[in-house]
Amino acid sequence: MGIAVSYYLYNRSQREVQAGEALSQAAVSAVNPATRIEKPEPFLKVASEFSGTSAGSQALLRAAAAFFAEGKYAEAQAQYEKFMRDHRESP
Length: 91
Hints:
The chain is mainly α. The protein has helices spanning 2-30, 41-49, 54-69, 73-86. Helix 1 (2-30) runs antiparallel to helix 2 (41-49), helix 2 (41-49) packs antiparallel against helix 3 (54-69) and helix 3 (54-69) packs antiparallel against helix 4. The longest helix is centred in the N-terminal third of the chain and has 29 residues, at 2-30. The protein is flat, with a radius of gyration of 15 Å. The chain starts with a helix and ends in a 5-residue tail after the last helix.
């Protein structure tokens, strides 16, 4: 039983690490050099692939902010509402 719990915790921590790395890469690739505004697509990919992780939830918020910065307010609102539904406990 102890080995199973240890294995689960190890996999969970490794997933968090991978999610953090993916979010960092998305942040670098999301910046449009011409406008210096972030594109939402890389963040949406991280949010989808790593849902349930801290980085996944951060990616969802960054995607919403990127949509807002692009003037795509309906898409931004949809992402903010998804975050609020999925992360009710978040301040």
